[in-house]
Amino acid sequence: MQQDILINWSPQETRVAIVENGAVQELHVERTLERGLVSNVYLGKVARVLPGMQSAFIDIGLERAAFLHVADVWHRQPEGEPPGFVRNTLPQVPIEKQVFEGQSLMVQVIKDPIGTKGARLSTQISIAGRLLVFLPQDDHVGVSQKIPVEQREALRGRLQALVGAQGGGFILRTNGEDASDAELAEDIAYLRKTWTRIKEASTRLPPMSLLHQDLDLLQRVLRDLVSEETQTIRLDSKEQFARLHAFGQEFMPAAAGRLQLYKGERPIFDLFSIDDEIAKALGRRVDLKSGGYVIVDQTEALTTVDVNTGGFVGARNFDDTIFKTNLEAAQAIARQLRLRNLGGIIIVDFIDMGREDHRDAVLAEFRKQLGRDRVKTMSGGFSQLGLVEMTRKRTRESLAHMLCEPCLACQGKGTVKTARSVAYDILREILREARQFNPREYRVVASPKVIELFLDEESQHLAGLSDFIGKPISLQSESAMGQEQYDIVLL
Description:
Elements: E1 3-10, E2 13-20, E3 23-31, E4 41-50, E5 55-59, E6 66-69, E7 104-111, E8 120-122, E9 127-128, E10 132-135, E11 141-143, H1 149-163, E12 169-172, H2 181-204, E13 209-212, H3 217-225, E14 230-235, H4 238-251, H5 253-256, E15 259-261, H6 274-281, E16 285-287, E17 293-298, E18 302-308, H7 318-340, E19 344-349, H8 356-370, E20 377-382, E21 388-392, H9 399-403, H10 419-436, E22 442-446, H11 448-455, H12 459-469, E23 473-477, E24 486-490
Parallel strand pairs: 1-14, 11-12, 14-15, 18-19, 22-23
Antiparallel strand pairs: 1-2, 2-3, 4-5, 4-7, 4-13, 5-6, 7-8, 9-10, 10-12, 16-17, 17-18, 19-21, 20-21, 22-24
């Protein structure tokens, strides 16, 4: 599989597209004014302790107070045990016995604010490096579970020797599997230096201060998104290329070697029609090559995905048509989840299949495609109703939430009342007002479509109401008004 990374940089926004075999698989957007908070370390101040919820609200200087649950309060583990928040064998210490109002607390954001919820915090600090994750409060040395079991012990032994007497907890990341001792030692030194700087800032700065900020998206491309399959990393800014190249040479020389400055005439995102893909990823309908289509609906609680055959009648029998549509949809859905960065609970409604071997094959293909996702996913089998339930870890806003906002006309419902429904609402409202007030005249201010209806098809009903209440009713068209908006002015 060939992978290319394209970076479109501007002072206000950085956009990164991961292209695999010519198709866009992932989009990452970071706006200068809206940088994510995950991994940021703050000196927080406890605003409120809620024993009933076993949580505390922590003020870290943001618009909304952040949230610390008792399960995210760090506890030192007995020697030799892996780091954990609460040991299962011991009863939980109530949060009111661990923190108090007004207390200063070093905390790290583990989940960005989403919707109306504040950021979620942990008191266990972890600092990610290129090859390692540093857990300064622990002493455990571990290895990523994605690395084969037979290699883990040898790697753990090497890492323990490098950590030495200075201690500290370290976890070897997947991309550190083939690293040399010199590279690992370099990462250890960098992470320890970062932690020293954080501790020094915590004694010097007042509460509600930012002590450490994670790398920006450009730097995270080299740290997190580059893999063995990555052929090139193309960036369209000369200034940022120099900055990223210097950063890469210091911390990630192998990745820095794949960096290329893009000097083409066409905008870099035009190479693979990425802006078109972004437009499609914001729509509900995804067309399949076979003629079938997938409908993606994102709600507050979950995301639903519905598969339809559409105009696909290419196979010899109906069972084969359904099977081929579902197979193609399985690939498309996995790609859309990555592209749109959809998280939380996801319900997939494949077209019903009569044959069990077809169901197994579709499920196997779906799981295979999900396996390529760098974000953790879990999927079940087909339920009694023929639905596939799955979860995808949610750590940041979806693409739609980042780039869009609810429609002013429909307030996110996706539909508005018809002009006739609004007209009848207006007639009822005038009748209600007539029972309470005695004006000289009623003036209806509404959208052009509603006013047009009153002048034409509903003119008889309007005249009848005017006769009934004994007052004239005048009309005023207001093009700036949405279809559901109207005013009744008493003159």
